[in-house]
Amino acid sequence: MKEPLRRAARAGAVAAIVSGVPSTAHALLEGHDVLAATRAAGSLLPGRRDRPGIVAGLVAHVLVSTFWTGVLAAIARRHRLRPLRGAAAGLAIAALDLCVAGRTYPAVRALPHAPQVLDHLVFGAVAGALLDRPQGTDQRTTSTTSPGCSEL
Q1: Taking a C-beta distance cutoff of 8 angstroms, is the pair 52, 70 a contact?
Q2: How far apart are CA 18 and CA 15, in angstroms?
Q3: Is 121 exposed, middle or buried (0-12, 13-18, 19+ CB in 10 A)?
Q4: DSSP the chain
Q5: Alpha-carbon gap, residue 114 to 74, rounded angstroms
Q6: Sequence-distant (≥ 6) Cβ neighbours of residue 122 within 8 angstroms
Q7: pLDDT tens across 70-107, in order?
Q8: Cys-Cys crosslink for 57: which of 30, 33, 38, 141, Cβ 3.0 to 4.6 Å?
């Protein structure tokens, strides 16, 4: 696997996993169902609109996270994201995801809004941090001497 694809896969996997922390913490603190967001995501799959489920939710979360990671990876090829720009991208993703899905899918609309926005913000910040790498550098290079120079 080439390095940019490996970096994107790692960034997407880590960001997808940790992005649920805010809504899970909120659900725990409020005594709500910690799997409600997962079930709601399941309603995004074709034929599942009125049948949210945990497995379907996990599949939907992986698909949506993979899509947005691809978008962020394409941006990161030309512009440094870093966590702050990644977080801003996460907020833009939240606006698209939650406004479109929230308007159309009742299970998504029923979720508390702020924790879902925070989930997206975390996703973007983590993905931005992990996709970030100064352009034109080779992280495998460890030597401090120039090629052709010998040490005395």
Answers
A1: no
A2: 5
A3: buried
A4: --HHHHHHHHHHHHHHHHTTHHHHHHHHHHT--TTHHHHHHHTTSTT-TT---HHHHHHHHHHHHHHHHHHHHHHHTTS--HHHHHHHHHHHHHHHHHHHHHHH-HHHHTS-HHHHHHHHHHHHHHHHHHH---TT--TT----SPTT----
A5: 28
A6: 15, 18, 19, 21, 22, 87, 90
A7: 999 999 999 999 999 999 999 999 999 999 888 899 99
A8: 38
Tens digits of residue pLDDT in 34-79: 999 999 999 999 999 988 899 999 999 999 999 999 999 999 999 9
pTM: 0.84
Residue 80 near residue 60, CB atoms below 8 Å = no
Cα torsion angle, 136, 142, 146, 147, sign: negative
Q: For the chain, how far is it from start to end, CA to CA, in angstroms?
A: 39
Q: Rounded distance, CA 87 to CA 123, Å?
A: 7
Q: Would you state the structure tokens that stand for residue 60, as one six-digit string?
A: 């939907």
